[in-house]
Amino acid sequence: VIDPFNDASAIDAFFYKVLFVQNFVNTPLVRLDDSEKLVFPPRFLHEYNKDKFLAFLSLSGECSSLEIPKIAHTFYEALVKFKKRLSPRQGLLPNVVGVGGTCRPGSLRCFVSVDGRIFPCEKIDDNSKTMQIGTLDEGFNFSQVKRIYNMYGLLDGRCNHCWNLLLCNVCPMRIDDGSKLSADRLELSCKKEKSNSETMIRSIIALSEYKDLINTKNVEE
């Protein structure tokens, strides 16, 4: 996880050491609470945008993905995965569907605190009174798992006709204020997810138009 106040080029150089040569490196930015603003120092922003541009070049076929910096691969992979999620579906949506960013708590992995409390994953604040899904002594609390998966009823049908339903990454962790899942935080996260999806869609359209332009020039030549 990258802190914007660190040197992006130094981080990239670190991941070119022998230990990482054959490995994919995922380098997301540190995620703050959605009510907080992430500050980008000018130097980091310059390096970060340069890496995104190189990822665009790779996706457009101008260079191999092996030629782009390690930390540029995160944006590269994000665009590839997002584009796949935009692929046309066969048939209608299922009658029951979860929000895109909500995993089934406890089904993929768990985090256990030192005193034996179970949480959905390692990203959860273990001081949270809302996100605990059981204990080592008593096992899973399936009623609590269900409540978290349904975000304590906060969604209440609001996602049913949302264009971003299958692209959304809202997670209960992001709307937990420590004592409850917050409707205000959900509203902020919802707006942020739509904005992120719009940015990714614009990026994919820009790539498509660039490829069309290059192909047109090649035909004319």
Describe this structure in words.
- There is one protein chain.
- Strands 1-2-3-4 form a four-stranded antiparallel beta sheet.
- A hairpin with a 3-residue loop joins strand 3 and strand 4 (139-140).
- Helices cover 38% and strands 4% of the residues.
- With 221 residues, it is mainly alpha-helical.
Strand content: under 5%
What gross morphology would you assign? globular
- Total strand count, please? 4
Q: Give the topology string: H per helix, E per strand.
A: HHHEEEEHH
The biggest sheet amounts to: 4 strands, antiparallel
List low-confidence stretches. Answer: none
The helical percent reads 25-40%
- What is the average per-residue confidence, as pLDDT, rounded to a whole number? 82
Intertermini distance: 45 Å
**Rg from Cα:** 20 Å
* Helix run count: 5
- Briefly note the structural class of the backbone: mainly alpha
Strand order of the largest sheet: 1-2-3-4
Short account of what is shown:
With 221 residues, the protein is mostly helical. Helix content is 38%, strand content 4%.
